[in-house]
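FORM 12-B: Structure-to-Sequence Request
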């Protein structure tokens, strides 16, 4: 196991009726940006709970954050932050709203001339951001307990990420009952997103990280076993509570301690979302089996281990097939043709982007533009 430093400053406030706890975590004199999406929190009662809890605070609302948060929308929110001298961000929703909140919080304290540079440099020079709190309503990305953010830009068809310690949420409220009104598609996406997060930190090569391997396998196995209840039992508190907690654990820096990581699937997937507007989870389900098949020799030992422990299988290729079957079982398609996307066109466009950036992906940094081209072609 490699050397590591574990840092996670986010306080998790978990359980029923926990939204009211935010008033004990935000300074009474704070000026708050109440950030949310297209209005689902008004239908499920979360909006009213937040407004009631913060009735004695200075609160400025900014609705309309997209499913893939747009750079231009974030800049509009940033303008409000600066004009009203807002000093606290409360992001209420799923990972997209939280990601937008992190970018806005970072941009508010950014000294550069071009805010897109935060994304271009992956947040390398960020040292300061406004404090952020979150109320999670869609378990999926783990953004409620990490320093990661992904933002899209329509005019350039880019989707980039940044990561910084200063944008870890100060607190995150996780009330499983807020998930009861989620449509099946969003639950499906959350299942796939969480599963692939675990695999990006697990499916590489052995480094004798016995606890981390078992922890990652446990999260993945629990997700596989729980997925029918998550999708079909609308008001099952226990299944939703376990789902909400495991999505947080999937990407809060814990299972990545001391192990190599991949993330090629995510980086390729981001490009497909930027080009074709697919949901993030949809691109992950398409690309993950392709990455694994393309690098099957490098990943053979971990594929065998995962297959034996989770599916009672013996070969790497059968493990890949079993994972793809799991994706299908929750209603997720796994081929570009399923979305009427031409694989040749997609492969060429993404190849050009990575060739221009001269970026190499994967745990061995050996997946370049040409390899990415072949992986996408294989997912026709």
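FORM 12-B RESPONSE
SEQUENCE OUT:
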């Amino acid at each position: 196991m490699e050397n590591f430093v574990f840092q996670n400053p986010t306080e998790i406030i978990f359980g029923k009726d926990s939204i009211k706890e935010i008033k004990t975590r935000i300074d009474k004199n704070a000026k708050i940006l109440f950030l949310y999406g297209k209005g689902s929190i008004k239908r499920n009662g979360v909006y009213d709970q937040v407004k009631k809890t913060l009735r004695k605070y200075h609160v400025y609302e900014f609705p309309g954050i997209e499913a893939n948060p747009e750079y231009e929308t974030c800049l509009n929110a940033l303008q409000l932050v600066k004009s009203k001298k807002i000093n606290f961000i409360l992001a209420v929703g799923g990972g997209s709203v939280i990601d937008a909140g992190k970018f806005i919080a970072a941009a508010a304290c950014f000294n550069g001339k071009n805010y897109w540079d935060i994304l271009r440099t992956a947040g390398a020079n960020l040292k300061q951001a406004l404090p952020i709190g979150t109320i999670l309503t869609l378990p999926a990305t783990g953004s409620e307990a990490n320093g990661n953010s992904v933002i899209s830009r329509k005019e350039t068809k880019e989707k980039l990420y940044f990561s910084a310690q200063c944008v870890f949420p100060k607190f995150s409220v996780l009330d499983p009952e807020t998930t009861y009104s989620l449509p099946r598609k969003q639950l499906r996406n959350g299942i796939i997103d969480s599963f692939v997060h675990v695999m990006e930190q697990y499916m590489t090569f052995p480094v004798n990280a016995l606890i981390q391997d078992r922890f990652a396998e446990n999260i993945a196995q629990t997700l596989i076993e729980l997925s029918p209840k998550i999708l079909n039992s609308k008001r099952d508190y226990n299944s939703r509570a376990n789902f909400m907690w495991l999505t947080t654990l999937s990407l809060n820096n814990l299972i990545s301690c001391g192990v190599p990581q991949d993330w090629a699937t995510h980086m390729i997937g981001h490009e497909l979302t930027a080009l074709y507007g697919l949901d993030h989870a949809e691109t992950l389900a398409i690309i993950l089996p392709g990455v694994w098949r393309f690098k099957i020799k490098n990943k053979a030992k971990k594929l065998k281990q995962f297959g034996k422990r989770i599916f009672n299988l013996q070969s790497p290729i059968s493990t890949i097939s079993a994972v793809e079957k799991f994706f299908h079982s929750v209603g997720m398609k796994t081929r570009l043709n399923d979305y009427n996307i031409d694989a040749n066109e997609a492969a060429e466009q993404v190849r050009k982007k990575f060739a221009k950036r001269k970026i190499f992906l994967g745990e061995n940094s050996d997946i370049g533009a040409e390899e990415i081209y072949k992986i996408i072609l294989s997912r026709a």
